[in-house]
Specification:
By secondary structure, the protein is an alpha/beta fold. Helices cover 43% and strands 14% of the residues. The protein is built from 16 helices and 15 strands. The strands form five sheets. Strands 4-3-9-10 form a four-stranded parallel sheet, with helices on both faces. Strands 5-6-7-8 form a four-stranded antiparallel sheet. A hairpin with a 3-residue loop joins strand 5 and strand 6. The radius of gyration is 27 Å and the shape is elongated. The protein starts with a helix and ends with a strand.
Length: 491
């Protein structure tokens, strides 16, 4: 690896075996490798069209607020896109918006989430979708997530979905029941390859009933309206009045904007067994070729050992975290400290730790910006290590170690260090360029405590001054003694 090469050559340099050693010139940059769920291994990334990457991410169902478990998936997709851009690829990123057809059960049963929310809030499905998509975009901005190139809405691509279903029907992959048009999964020999599903174990048995479906793994392409005019969102089709199934939406929109064969598809690990498995089936049966080269999934955000959910707890939104005194960047920083392929345990205690660590990093960056230029230039060495960590399947914990080590390297010229940090921030997205000293307006009670401490210090009553310092800390402020005098900042 690149790191082994550096360590070995440093050893040679220390023993005098290698003269005029320049580690930054000898660092071997690792090619980008990504863990592909389809093959269950890390693979060297190879784009379809040289220098260009087509990337599709499963977006939100806009019937409610997106919680922090959802937002981890979008932070991951943002990280992946930033790493691709850092490696000088041009990225076309599509994030779909599900505003129809997502039922409350993965078994093609239950209510449409959009219709249910509209009824509950006394609004139209359009109003519900507009409102929650707007909140979603605001959360993306707070988290410094780069906007996708396209946010296609399922309700605006009914034509494409119908055409895809007709194509599958023509090729003999569909059948009708009383409630809709279904995909016959038994006719696709590679069904389940993404999730390694053993179809033999899912055959219909004497004690297993799944309605009119021929196979348990069959799924709805088009659902019929139970009563015409009852639903807010329904369309005429060659199959009957109804609405599209959730899975067919993604295939139709990804193919429209990225083509029948594209590079990367992302989403949460909960999509592997059903949603993405069904996408592959319908897309590859319709086109007769491979649809996606790299399927990349982010692990769950967990709370008390279980996936964050309404029933288990930990289901905060970004706005709710802000109300408790956190910044969206605190959550972004927390996510960077864990590898995307590992489940991230969430608690307010863990978020506190991330918030404090991020605050320390910001203070150090601000001090660096005020420092004069002196020391050596180790930009290539640190830059190589940072890129190697990212290119090793987006290993952000190691990348962050490189960043923090670099910040504390006193032999590295401060001005060059800041310049490199700003370059790194093209991936980290922590707002390093915007970091600056914040003016703190002290409440009157805290100001009086600060003045009292200064009086006690002048009288050399150190013990009493320390007691006042702790009182200031309990009020949420930290007082620091610096060369210029004192500095007070909010904790």
């Amino acid at each position: 690896s690149g790191d082994f090469t550096i360590d070995f050559l440093v050893m040679l340099a220390d023993t005098g075996e290698l003269k005029e050693f320049k580690p930054q010139r000898l660092l071997i940059i690792m090619e980008l490798k990504l863990y592909n769920t389809l093959t269950r291994k890390k693979e060297a990334f190879k784009e379809i069209k040289k220098g260009h990457v087509g990337m599709y991410s499963c977006g939100p169902t806009v019937y409610s607020y997106q919680h922090i478990g959802n937002m981890r998936a979008y932070l991951f997709a943002d990280l992946l896109k930033r790493v691709l851009l850092f490696n000088e690829y041009k990225v076309k990123h599509v994030v779909n918006i599900t505003d129809v057809g997502h039922l409350t059960s993965d078994a093609d049963e239950g209510e449409d989430k959009m219709e249910k929310a509209a009824l509950k809030e006394g609004k139209s499905a359009y109003e519900i979708a507009y409102f929650y998509f707007k909140i979603f975009k605001e959360d993306l901005k707070k988290l410094n997530i780069i906007d996708a190139d396209i946010y296609p809405k399922a309700s605006e691509h009914i034509k494409e979905q119908i055409e895809l279903i007709l194509n599958l029907e023509k090729k003999g992959y569909t059948y009708k029941t009383s409630d809709g048009v279904y995909f016959d999964s038994s006719k696709f020999k590679d069904y389940g390859k993404l999730g390694m599903i053993k179809i033999e174990g899912l055959k219909k048995g004497k004690r297993v009933s799944f309605g009119e479906k021929k196979n348990k793994t069959d799924f709805a392409l088009w659902k019929f309206s139970t009563e015409k005019g009852k639903r807010q969102q329904e369309w005429d089709s060659p199959f009957g009045v109804g609405f599209p199934g959730w899975h067919v939406e993604c295939s139709a929109m990804s193919m429209k904007y990225l083509g029948e064969h594209f590079d990367i598809h992302t989403g949460g690990e909960d999509h592997v067994q059903i949603h993405h498995t069904n996408e592959i089936a319908q897309s590859e049966c319709a086109t007769g070729k491979k649809c996606v080269n790299y399927w990349i999934h982010v692990a769950f955000l967990t709370f008390k050992g279980e996936k964050v959910s309404k029933s288990k707890g930990g289901l905060y939104t970004i706005s709710e975290l802000e109300e408790q005194g956190y910044n969206a960047f605190d959550f972004r920083y927390l996510c960077l400290l864990s590898h995307y392929h590992s489940q991230l345990s969430f608690s307010l205690e863990n978020l506190d730790s991330a918030k404090n660590a991020f605050s320390r990093m910001k203070r150090k960056v601000i001090e660096l910006k005020k420092s004069g230029g002196k020391g050596g230039d180790f930009s290539k060495e640190y830059g190589g290590k940072f890129l190697n960590a990212l290119n090793d399947d987006l290993n952000t914990p190691v990348a962050m170690q490189v960043v923090l080590q670099m910040i504390d390297d006193e032999d590295f010229d401060a001005s060059k260090k800041v310049k490199l940090l700003e370059k790194f921030d093209r991936v980290l997205g922590l707002g390093i360029k915007e970091m600056k000293e914040e003016k703190v307006k002290l409440p009157l009670a805290v100001k009086k405590l600060v003045d009292e401490r200064e009086r006690l210090r002048k009288e050399k009553k150190w013990a009493e001054a320390d007691i006042v310092r702790e009182r200031i800390k309990r009020e949420g402020y930290l007082i620091e003694d610096v060369v210029e005098g004192i500095k007070v900042r909010k904790i």
